[in-house]
Amino acid sequence: MIPHSEPYFSGNEFAALSHCIDTGWVSSAGPAVVELSTAIKELTQSPGVLALNSGTSALHLALIGCGVQAGDYVVIPDFTFIATANAVKYCGAEPILLDVHPQTWQSDIGLWIEWLNENGVKKEGKCFHKKTGRCIRASILVHALGYPADAFKWATVCKEWGIETVEDAAGALGSMLQNKACGTIGRFGVISLNGNKIITGGSGGLLLCRDINDLSYLHHLSTQARLEGDLYEHDAVGFNYRMNNLTAALALAQLETLNYRIEIKKKIYQGYRSYFSQGIWPEIIPSAQPNYWMVAFINPDKEELFQKCKSAGLEVRTLWKPLHLQVPYQNCERINKISFAEKIWKQGISLPTSIGSFMDGFPSLSAII
Q: In this predicted model, what pLDDT tens digit does every residue of 167-184 receive, in sequence order?
């Protein structure tokens, strides 16, 4: 069986973790945390990077940095992992669920603009919902499956309406748009280092900040808002969101081979495209360079194809269930016409892309075809 998304270890990870143990640097205080932040800063050309314990924590802090508070709205795609919506709820805010475009599977910007013109009103530089009067404080643009969404156009529209932009680039480390790293176009960007991502720390997340003042403030909150010194003084309600040195060391060792991993992922994508040419595939927008983290397509005969793939030794999976069908978010306002997010869930097939399983080339899938 070819596993769906197993981590790939290239050789230096054991030495990196052993060094942490040998030196005693295993907690959130450790040199690897700083080194990882610096390496990601150089890779993405982000002004500031904060290493955290998860991508979800990074999303939460990003929304706090945008000023999101109880009663606000935050616009997010209906097609995304539930952590995107949960981070909104952590702030006491409510998600507005935007459908995705049938061609790109990314947030439908045209539909967003149309809805804003009908339902938004701008007052004192902020956007408000006409019916409820609540502030639409921020938006989260997800680079779904590691493929860049049109963050430049999205951020421009949001800026015109006084809405902050957070890029959820959880699976998009190494993906580029117009030679800019995904996660560096909005006010904040978020990257995940979970075990299924293109590189992993076992867990962990990274918050990319365009403003150094934001970085300083959110770093303070991530350390339980503890003031300097040994008096255990805190000046705000903070969070224990720090990354530990073991996670950072593992991610650093993985980061050494990021370009190689993207090359292999691209070959996997191309191999599947040639085999499943009759499927409906998400389009890659012009000037985008994906990292091909996940490979997925739509097929009306999903159930039959699922069984064929499993019989041929492929661990295929279903894609994310739309947020409007999830119990906590069934009553959220929706922006949709055809609910393409639901079609992706019902007919979409996520194919295995574990790098270690494709080191000897692309397998024959004649049993499926």
A: 999 999 999 999 999 999
| Containing structural domain, residue 177 | 1-369
The domain that holds 328 is classified in CATH as 3.40.640.10
Written as six digits, the tokens of 170 are 């959880």
Q: What is the mean pLDDT of residues 350-368?
A: 86
Whether 145 and 105 have beta carbons less than 8 Å apart is answered as yes
Measured in degrees and rounded to the nearest 5, phi and psi for residue 269 equal -60, -50
What is the pLDDT at residue 190? 98
**Mean pLDDT confidence for 351-355:** 96
Task: Give me the torsion for CA of 10, 11, 13, 14, rounded to 10°.
Answer: 150
pLDDT digits (tens, 9 = 90+) for 103-128: 999 999 999 999 999 999 999 999 99
Closest listed residue to residue 287, CA positions, set 187, 148, 103: 148
Side-chain-facing half-sphere of 29: CA atoms under 13 Å: 2
Q: Are strands 205-209 and 48-52 parallel, antiparallel or unpaired?
A: antiparallel
Q: How far is CA 258 from CA 41, 151, 242, 348, in A?
A: 15, 23, 24, 27
pTM of the model: 0.96
Q: For the chain, how many structural domains are there in total?
A: 1
